[in-house]
Amino acid sequence: RHWFLLRNQRCTGAYLYDRLLRIRALRWDYGSVLPSALRLHMSAEEMDWFNGYKKSLLPLAGDQGLDITQDMKPPKSLCIKVRCLKDYGEFEVEDGASVLLKKHSQHFLPRWKCKQLIRQGILEHVLS
Amino acid sequence: MAEEADLLGQDSDGDSEEVVLTPAELIDRLEQAWMNEKFAPELLENKSEIVECVMEQLEHMEENLKRARKGDLKVSIHQMEMERIRFVLSSYLRCRLMKIEKFFPHILEKEKTRREEEPSTLSPEFAFAKEFLANTETYLKDTALKHMPPNLQKVDLLRTVPKPDLDAYVFLRVKERQENILVEPENDEQRDYVIDLEEGSQHLMRYRTVAPLVASGAIQLI
């Protein structure tokens, strides 16, 4: 009987651990703020784990000005073509010039500037 | 990159030996550390000196670029180079992080036995591993274990989390000639299977056999 209990414990453990691994993947896909649709699927303890994970990741991920959660793929070019999905307003690029990001407008902007906005869904990388 | 040829000084821990590297060599070392880390099944030694020097180098390059003329072709090429270096560095740190998360109980156990010598894991990484352990234990406890009968309430993470597979096969290239590498120890059917590794040759071997050579830099994983 004890063996059955152990087996059940291992199965629940495996299921919970797998959920944790997926939540961890979410942090790397979406950044620090999860969309509310996902948050509904998580239990309170999982939110706690996620917050704890975020917190312990901070000193490592963002230290000395290098954010390792960026740059997931090797860079192909300096500037990328992006299309604006939502109205954002003024966006400042390097030499102080600013670009007005209106819905459906297309721009050719430096890659590293756009990364954050692409993540948030405001800009979209155009591959044509 | 040749224009930025400032020689970097670097103190290795404790000794007053100065190891001076050109930027090209430094980037080379970073790439080697990156590839080794990617292909090794276990967490390798932390090359924090390389990481720090590369960060410094990136800062230098950024400053130089700010002072340079605008619209110069060299500027975009340098910027591209910087992006690439940043990617390699990020990838290296991410790879280490993933290994720490994967093998955290074993790494913490190894660290405990290593306390007298210099710690192989940089303190932020070690702190991360400890927090990760605490976090995961709390989660498992609160979600499942407290509902279980008393004799099942502890989970031995050392046993349940899989160990790094040191017998995985890895491709390698030999940088320094090695003699008499023991591939298979003597057993009933065969004598010691011993080979010499020629410089520049490439092999496919079990990681366990070559682990110390990777650590010493005599072998490059590919």
From TrEMBL, chain A:
Q: Which CDD domains match?
A: GINS_A_psf1, GINS_B_Psf1
What SUPFAM superfamilies does the entry give?
A: GINS helical bundle-like
Which Pfam family, an example, fits this chain?
A: Sld5
Using the record's annotation, list all stretches that form the DNA replication complex GINS protein PSF1 C-terminal domain.
76-127
List GO BP terms, alphabetically. Answer: DNA strand elongation involved in mitotic DNA replication
Database matches in PANTHER family: DNA REPLICATION COMPLEX GINS PROTEIN PSF1 (PTHR12914:SF2), PARTNER OF SLD5 (PTHR12914)
Q: How does it assemble?
A: Component of the GINS complex which is a heterotetramer of GINS1, GINS2, GINS3 and GINS4. Forms a stable subcomplex with GINS4. GINS complex interacts with DNA primase in vitro. Component of the CMG helicase complex, a hexameric ring of related MCM2-7 subunits stabilized by CDC45 and the tetrameric GINS complex.
What's this protein's function? Required for correct functioning of the GINS complex, a complex that plays an essential role in the initiation of DNA replication, and progression of DNA replication forks. GINS complex is a core component of CDC45-MCM-GINS (CMG) helicase, the molecular machine that unwinds template DNA during replication, and around which the replisome is built.
What protein am I looking at? Answer: DNA replication complex GINS protein PSF1
Q: Which organism is it from?
A: Bos mutus grunniens
Automatic annotation (TrEMBL), chain B:
Instruction: Please tell me whether the keyword Amino-acid biosynthesis is annotated for this protein.
Output: no
Q: Name one Pfam family in it.
A: SLD5_C
List this protein's GO terms for biological process: DNA-templated DNA replication; double-strand break repair via break-induced replication; inner cell mass cell proliferation
Q: Where is the GINS subunit domain?
A: 73-141
Where are the coiled-coil regions?
A: 44-71
- Where does it localize? Chromosome; Nucleus
The record's keywords, sorted A to Z, are: Chromosome, Coiled coil, DNA replication, Nucleus
Give me the Gene Ontology terms describing cellular component: CMG complex; cytoplasm; GINS complex
Q: Which SUPFAM superfamilies match?
A: GINS helical bundle-like (SSF158573), PriA/YqbF domain (SSF160059)
What CDD domains does the database record attribute to this sequence?
Answer: GINS_A_Sld5, GINS_B_Sld5
Keyword 4Fe-4S belongs to the record = no
Q: What does this protein do?
A: Required for initiation of chromosomal DNA replication. Core component of CDC45-MCM-GINS (CMG) helicase, the molecular machine that unwinds template DNA during replication, and around which the replisome is built.
Family per UniProt? Belongs to the GINS4/SLD5 family.
Protein name listed in UniProt: DNA replication complex GINS protein SLD5
**Organism the protein comes from:** Bos mutus grunniens (Wild yak)
